[in-house]
Amino acid sequence: MNTNMCLACHSKATAASTGAPTPGDSHFQDRDGNPLDDVSGARYFCAQCHVRRVVADPLVSNTYQGGK
Length: 68
What we know:
Layout: H1 7-10, H2 15-18
């Protein structure tokens, strides 16, 4: 709960070996745009903005078809 497991693969230090994309440069800036060595505390909890990837069956059936 207090550790960002996303960064285990997605950090700048590990992404090359895991093949995972790294967070954008904006994630390594403070609120004034100054560069940081690590992910900003304001962007540390990825699931606040990003959806977790899970292989799972849909919770409800869906027959939606996109516009034509």
